[in-house]
Each structure stands twice: as C-alpha cells, then as structure tokens.
Amino acid sequence: MPLISFHEALQYFQTADLSECRKKIQPTVRRRGLSAVAHFFFGPPRLLQQLQGERDLALAIAQCGLDNNENVHMRILQTIYKKLTGSKFDCPRYGTHWEELGFQGMDPGTDLRGTGLFGLIQILYFVMDSRTLPLARDIFKLSQHELQNFPFCVMSVNITRIVIHVLREERLSRECNRRQQVITVLNDLYVATFLRLYSIWKTQQKTISDSGFVLKGAFPCIFSKREITRVLIATWDCL
Predict the structure, then answer these.
(1) What is the count of structural domains for the chain?
(2) Domain range holding 54?
(3) Is residue 82 part of a domain?
(4) Is position 11 within any domain?
(5) pLDDT per residue of the chain (239 residues) written in tens, 0 to 9
(6) In a domain, 1, yes or no
(7) Which pTM does this prediction carry?
C-alpha cells in the first residue's frame, strides 16, 4: 500500500461526503450569562468568515471514525506505521504491533474518541513533513525508553484533543486570521505542544505517572492568545 502525504489526505477529506459528520460539530464553545458578555467585549476576535469553512472541515474530520472500507483511511494508518518504525512493508489492520506504536490496544480506531480521524492526520502531518519527522522519531524513541516510556499515539491523540478544544474556544482566531489559514495553524500548535512535552519529559525525567500533570499543568501557559504567535515562531526556530 503506497504512502500518503498529508496534503493528499486533506484533499480527500475536502472532497469526501462529510455531511453526517458536519451535523455533529459545534464550532465554538457555548457561553452564557456573564461569561458570554465578557467574551464578547474582551475575548479574542471572531474567526474571519472566509476561514470558517476550513475550521468546520477540521471539526468534521474530528467527527469521522476510522473506516476499514476507505482506502485513504487505511493508507493513513499504514503510512504512520511505516514512517515511525522504518518498515517497508504493510502491517495487519489489527494486532499487537499497534500497541508498540503507543495505541492502547490492537485496534487504533478505538483510541480516537474526541479527535476522530483528525487525530490520525495530525500524526500523519508530523511524520510526513521533512522538517518535523526527525522530532517525531526522537519522541517516538523516547516513548520506548525503559523508564520514561509512554504511549506515543495515545499522547498524540490527547494533544490533538487539546488543539481542538483551543480552536473551539476561539483562542486561535487571531493567529488564523493573521495567517489566513486554520489547519496549518492547528498543525503548528500540535507540533509546538509535542515539542514542549518532549522537552519537559526528557529534561525533567518524567514517567508515565506524570503524564496527566504534564498535559494539564504544563501547557495552558502557551495557549493564551498573546503567547501563541511567539510559541509557534519559536517552535519552527528549534526545528
């Protein structure tokens, strides 16, 4: 099965019938009372109308489940496996080899709750971009460490879940408006978050028992609207 690039996968979703998935999306967090008033007057700017379709596409992909009958879905899985492991051969759809990549069980599809296929295509972006592949492999190597091991793909899906939440809270709107892009900003924030996790995990000798703290406690500071641009620029300077 041939590898698939991130752009080819994205083009597939841009033309696929996602009508059922689109019915499930909630583009922004619903606010009421004083929270709604404060957000209106003091919150981030609204996402430009011409970018809302791209935002909704990302959220629709996040509502799509893994389908064994969709060739593109299977190619995404196989590409992730090959790029992380260095294998030149396809692997079975089910099996313990997925646990070695950091999924919780023998079926990766069961770990995508809350992110759907967007959780997979962010990993795909990570491993198929020549600038980020070395980082992805370094993180994957650390995830296999005897003492500091952690489930790489589950951690990745958790990061994607955070990215989606930040998007829905509109804290990325200013950066998306500035760059006239949405999905690229989401991917950059995903990489920035994984890079920060990797740095903390490696330098502070974190273990799996620290994962909740690292995800929930170490990252909120980079999600303020004033910090996002600086963090994204700094991330690419590091790569």
Answers:
(1) 1
(2) 6-238
(3) yes
(4) yes
(5) 899 999 999 999 999 999 999 999 998 856 555 444 444 444 568 899 999 999 999 999 999 999 999 999 999 999 999 999 999 999 999 999 999 999 999 999 999 988 999 999 999 999 999 999 999 999 999 999 988 889 999 999 999 999 999 999 898 999 999 999 999 999 999 998 898 889 888 988 888 887 777 776 555 455 555 555 555 555 555 66
(6) no
(7) 0.87
